[in-house]
C-alpha cells in the first residue's frame, strides 16, 4: 500500500473540501441567498416550486454533504451502504458479510433507523453506541402521555401487540429510557427491535417519529465488531464501515424513501440486496430506482440473494448478471459487480466454521437455533445429534455449504477490496461528489452573474417570457397526453395481435404433440435444454390411457405435463423477447412525442434548461417480465378418472362338487364363473388437450389485460411526473431571474460589489473543480496500481 501517497492525496482532498465549505459560507453572505425561504418555496400557478440550488435550505444540505465527505477523509473511512427490501434478506446478508449475527432477523421491517456497523479488530463481542439518544427519549415521553389517554383495547385494533410490543409499552409507561451503550448480541437485538417497534407504535398513535434528527450519519447508532472475514488480515490504510439503510417501503413510512436517498448520497459505495425470486416485483423496483438515483457518484454492487431457490427453469448465473446489469439497472452496474448468492447458507456455513475454529465443536442445538438451521442445510433434515459430534464431518459439511452459497466471491471482490482500499474509496467518493458540486455551483453562479449584467428591463422581459412558456407547457401537456394515448393504444393493439398469434402457435404445437405422442421435432433443441431427451409419451392412436393403479397413471400424466411445459417454455422465451422490443419501441415513440411537442418551448429557454441540467427524456418503468410465466399445473389437475368395470372371474363352487374338485386338484372341471367390479384409472387425451388449451387462452387473456393496464398506468404516471418536473424547472428559472431582478434594483455600487463577490466565487469554484479533477485522476491511477 502506498501509504505516503494516500496520505498526501488525503491532505489535498481535505484542503479542497475545506475550500469548498468556505466558498459556501461566502455564498451565504450574498443578498440573493439570504432572502426569505418564502421566495423560494411558494406555490405558483404551475404547481410546487423547486427550491433554488443555493437557497438557504439547500445550501445547508450541500454543506452537510461536504462536511460528511470531509469527516470520512479525515478518518479514512469507507462507508458501504447496504439497501434492500423487507423480504430480500438484508439482515441475513449483513450477518453473512460480518460472519456473525449482529442484526435481528424478523419477518417484518427491522431497520427503523440507519445503523453503522464498523469493523473493529479485536472486538469479538459486538457493542452498540447510541450517543444521540435525546430525540428518542423525547419521543418516549410524548408516547407516555399519549398512552395515558389511549385505551389498550383501542390501541390493539390499530397495532399488533406481540410480546416485544407489550414489553415496549411497559417500558414507556414506567419511564425507562434508552441507554447510550449496549454490549452483546442480545442487548443489541433488543435495542434495534425496540426502535423498530417505536416506529410502529408512533404511527398507530399518530405521533411523528424523529427521522429528521438522524439524517446526519454521525447521529445514527454505531455497532463496533470484528468482521470474521477480516480477522487476521493485515490492516488496510483506512476504516471500513457498513451502513444498514431502511428500505424505501419499510414500516409503511413513505418518507423513508427520501431518507434512503440522503443516506445513499453519503456513502462511498452501494451494495444492493435483491431477491432472486422477486427480481421484477414492485418493491425491488423501488430499491433499483433509489440506487439509480445516486448516479455515477458511487460504485454499485448487487447481491442476488436466495439463489439457492433456483429451479431448472430459472435463470442461471450469467443470465441473472445480464438481466440486472443490462435491463433492470439500465447499464449502471457492471455484470462483474453482480453476485448470485445464498446469504442464509453463507451465514450459517461461516458461523459454523468460526465456531469450529474457536471451540472445535458446535454449541448445543437446543440452546442455539442457528445450529439446527445449519444442520438442516448442511446435513439434511434427518440429521442426528451424533452427526454433530464428529467435528471432521461437520467441518467438511460447512465447507461444502460455504461453496454452495457462492459467498466467497463477493467477500473477496467487495469486502476484502473495500477493507484493503478503504481510504481510496473514501477519496474517490469525495472527489466525485466535489466534482458534482462544483459543476452545479459554477452553472448556477454563471447564471446569477449573467443576471447582474442584464438591464432590469431585459430581466423583466425574460421573466414574462418564462411565465408565458409555463402557460404553454400546461397547454402542451394536454396535447402530449393525447398523443401518448394514441401511442399506447397502438402498442396495446400490437401486443394483443402478437399474443393471439402466439396462442395460435401454441395450440398448433400442442395439437402436433397429441397427434404424435411426443414433443414436435422443431422443439427438440428446447427439450434438450431440460437436460434429457424426450421420447414417445403415449400411443397417439389411442384416445385414452388405461392403468390398473393410480401411481402409474400419475407418472404418465407427469410425463405429458413435462412435455407440454417444454412447448409453453419455448413460446414464453420468444414472447419475452418480442415484448421487450415492443416496450423499447413504445419508449422511443413517447420520447419523440415529447420532444416534438416541447421543442418550441425548449428552443426558447434552452440555455436556462441546460444550466438547470434538465433533459427531455421519458423513461418507462422496466417491463415486468415476471408476469409472463406459464404455470400449467392447474391444467393437469383432476384429469385421472377412476372407473369401475366388470371383470369375469372363476371360483370353486360350494357343495360336494367343489369339494371333490379340490381333492382331485382338477383344472378342467369343478369351476363356476362370476363377475366382480375392478377399478381402473383412465386419462382422456382429448380432455388433457382441451384443458391445456383453455388454460393457455385464459392465461394469455389475463396477461393481455394486465400488460395493457400496466402500460396505461405507467405512461399516465410518467407523463404527469414529466410535466411536473418540466414546469418546476421553468419555475426555478423564473425564480432565479426574479432574484436577479431584485439584486439589479439596488444601487450600482451594491450591484458591483455583489457581482465581484459572485465572480470571486466562480473563480474559486473553477479552481476547486480543476484541482479536484486532477486529484481524481491521481487517485484512479493509484487505484489501478493497487488492484
UniProtKB/TrEMBL annotation:
Record-annotated membrane-spanning stretches: none
InterPro entries: Dynamin_N, G_DYNAMIN_dom, P-loop_NTPase
UniProtKB keywords: Coiled coil
Keyword Transcription: no
Residues forming coiled coils: 449-476
Pfam families documented for this protein: Dynamin_N
Domain Dynamin-type G: 74-410
Identification of the protein by name: Dynamin family protein
Organism expressing this protein natively: Buttiauxella selenatireducens
Amino acid at each position: 500500500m502506498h501509504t505516503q501517497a494516500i496520505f498526501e492525496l488525503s491532505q489535498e482532498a481535505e484542503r479542497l473540501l475545506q475550500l469548498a465549505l468556505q466558498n459556501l459560507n461566502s455564498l451565504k453572505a450574498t443578498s440573493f441567498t439570504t432572502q426569505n425561504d418564502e421566495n423560494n418555496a411558494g406555490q405558483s400557478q404551475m404547481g410546487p416550486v423547486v427550491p433554488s440550488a443555493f437557497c438557504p435550505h439547500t445550501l445547508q444540505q450541500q454543506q452537510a454533504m461536504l462536511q460528511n465527505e470531509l469527516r470520512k477523509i479525515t478518518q479514512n473511512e469507507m462507508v458501504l451502504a447496504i439497501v434492500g427490501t423487507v423480504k430480500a434478506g438484508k439482515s441475513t446478508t449483513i450477518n453473512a458479510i460480518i460472519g456473525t449475527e449482529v442484526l435481528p432477523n424478523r419477518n417484518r421491517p427491522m431497520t427503523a433507523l440507519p445503523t453503522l456497523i464498523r469493523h473493529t479488530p479485536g472486538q469479538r463481542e459486538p457493542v452498540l453506541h447510541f450517543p444521540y439518544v435525546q430525540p428518542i427519549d423525547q419521543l418516549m415521553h410524548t408516547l407516555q402521555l399519549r398512552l395515558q389517554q389511549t385505551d389498550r383495547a383501542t390501541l390493539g385494533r390499530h397495532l399488533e401487540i406481540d410480546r416485544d410490543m407489550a414489553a415496549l409499552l411497559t417500558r414507556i409507561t414506567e419511564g425507562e429510557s434508552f441507554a447510550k451503550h449496549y454490549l452483546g448480541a442480545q442487548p443489541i437485538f433488543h435495542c434495534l427491535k425496540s426502535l423498530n417497534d417505536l416506529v410502529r407504535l408512533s404511527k398507530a398513535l399518530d405521533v411523528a417519529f424523529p427521522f429528521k434528527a438522524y439524517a446526519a450519519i454521525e447521529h445514527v447508532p454505531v455497532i463496533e465488531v470484528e468482521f470474521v472475514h477480516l480477522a487476521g488480515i493485515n490492516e488496510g490504510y483506512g476504516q471500513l464501515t457498513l451502513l444498514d439503510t431502511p428500505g424505501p417501503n419499510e414500516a409503511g413510512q413513505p418518507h423513508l424513501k427520501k431518507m434512503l436517498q440522503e443516506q445513499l448520497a453519503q456513502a462511498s459505495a452501494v451494495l444492493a440486496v435483491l431477491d432472486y425470486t422477486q427480481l421484477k416485483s414492485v418493491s425491488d423496483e423501488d430499491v433499483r430506482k433509489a440506487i439509480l438515483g445516486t448516479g455515477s457518484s458511487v460504485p454499485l454492487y448487487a447481491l442476488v440473494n436466495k439463489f439457492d431457490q433456483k429451479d431448472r427453469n430459472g435463470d442461471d448465473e450469467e443470465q441473472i448478471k445480464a438481466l440486472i446489469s443490462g435491463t433492470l439497472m439500465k447499464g449502471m452496474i457492471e455484470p462483474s459487480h453482480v453476485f448470485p448468492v445464498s446469504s442464509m447458507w453463507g451465514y450459517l456455513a461461516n458461523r459454523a466454521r468460526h465456531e469450529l475454529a474457536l471451540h472445535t465443536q458446535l454449541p448445543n442445538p437446543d440452546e442455539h437455533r442457528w445450529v439446527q438451521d445449519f444442520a438442516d442445510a448442511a446435513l439434511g433434515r434427518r440429521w442426528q445429534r451424533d452427526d454433530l459430534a464428529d467435528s471432521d464431518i461437520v467441518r467438511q459439511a460447512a465447507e461444502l455449504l460455504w461453496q454452495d452459497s457462492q459467498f466467497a466471491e463477493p467477500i473477496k471482490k467487495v469486502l476484502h477490496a473495500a477493507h484493503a482500499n478503504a481510504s481510496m474509496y473514501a477519496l474517490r467518493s469525495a472527489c466525485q461528489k466535489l466534482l458534482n458540486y462544483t459543476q452545479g455551483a459554477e452553472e448556477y453562479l454563471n447564471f446569477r452573474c449573467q443576471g447582474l449584467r442584464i438591464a432590469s428591463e431585459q430581466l423583466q422581459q425574460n421573466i414574462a417570457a418564462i411565465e408565458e412558456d409555463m402557460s404553454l407547457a400546461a397547454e402542451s401537456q394536454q396535447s402530449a397526453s393525447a398523443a401518448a394515448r394514441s401511442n399506447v393504444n397502438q402498442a396495446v393493439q400490437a401486443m394483443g395481435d402478437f399474443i393471439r398469434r402466439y396462442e395460435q402457435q401454441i395450440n398448433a404445437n400442442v395439437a402436433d404433440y397429441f397427434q404424435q405422442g411426443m414433443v414436435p421435432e422443431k422443439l427438440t433443441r428446447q427439450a434438450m435444454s431440460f437436460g434429457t431427451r424426450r421420447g414417445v409419451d403415449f400411443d397417439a392412436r389411442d384416445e385414452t390411457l388405461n392403468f390398473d393403479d393410480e401411481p402409474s397413471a400419475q407418472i404418465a400424466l407427469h410425463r405429458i405435463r413435462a412435455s407440454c411445459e417444454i412447448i409453453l417454455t419455448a413460446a414464453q422465451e420468444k414472447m419475452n423477447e418480442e415484448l421487450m422490443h415492443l416496450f423499447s419501441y413504445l419508449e422511443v415513440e413517447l420520447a419523440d412525442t415529447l420532444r416534438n411537442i416541447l421543442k418550441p418551448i425548449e428552443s426558447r429557454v434552452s440555455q436556462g434548461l441546460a444550466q438547470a441540467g434538465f433533459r427531455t427524456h421519458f423513461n418507462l418503468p422496466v417491463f415486468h417480465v415476471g408476469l409472463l410465466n406459464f404455470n400449467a399445473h392447474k391444467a393437469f389437475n383432476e384429469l385421472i378418472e377412476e372407473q369401475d368395470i366388470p371383470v369375469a372371474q372363476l371360483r370353486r363352487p360350494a357343495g360336494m362338487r367343489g369339494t371333490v374338485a379340490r381333492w382331485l386338484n382338477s383344472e378342467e372341471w369343478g369351476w363356476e364363473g362370476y363377475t366382480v367390479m375392478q377399478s381402473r384409472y383412465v386419462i382422456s387425451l382429448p380432455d388433457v388437450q382441451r384443458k391445456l388449451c383453455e388454460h393457455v387462452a385464459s392465461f394469455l387473456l389475463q396477461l393481455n389485460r394486465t400488460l395493457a393496464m400496466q402500460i396505461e398506468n405507467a405512461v399516465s404516471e410518467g407523463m404527469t411526473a414529466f410535466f411536473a418536473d418540466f414546469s418546476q424547472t421553468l419555475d426555478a428559472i423564473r425564480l432565479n431571474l426574479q432574484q436577479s431582478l431584485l439584486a439589479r434594483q439596488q444601487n450600482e455600487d451594491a450591484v458591483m460589489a455583489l457581482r465581484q463577490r459572485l465572480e470571486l466565487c466562480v473563480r474559486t469554484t473553477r479552481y476547486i473543480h480543476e484541482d479536484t479533477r486532477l486529484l481524481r485522476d491521481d487517485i484512479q491511477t493509484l487505484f489501478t496500481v493497487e488492484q
